[in-house]
Amino acid sequence: MQRSAIALLFSLALSPASPVAYAQNVDTRVTTAHRAYDLARAASASGMATTEEVYVWSVRWLDAERLAAPDRAQAAVMAHLSRMTTLEAEVRARVATGSAPASAEAACAYYVAEARAWQTQPPRL
Question: Which of 67, 78, 70 is nearest to 118 (CA)?
Fold first, then answer.
């Protein structure tokens, strides 16, 4: 009897999800990544999170948007670039006042350069 239950669970795990469930999961990824990005950005501004955490959630948001609307992938890349450019300016100001390390500014420069590169060749999912 136990083998039957395990086999049933395994087959359910491998069965394709319905298109509606898939779309809901994709939409949930966009919404939750956006929320996590906003929270990480606020935490970073108060010194409670790193710029890398902000970057990671921005990339996750980008990936979720690209999955949700492949025809708008370039717009998602441009939105990510805008977020990283804004983050870089904010971090540069904090470095100037001594409230953030220079390494954070260098990391942000990388994030912006990466996003600019993705303008011509978006990251693969």
Answer: 78
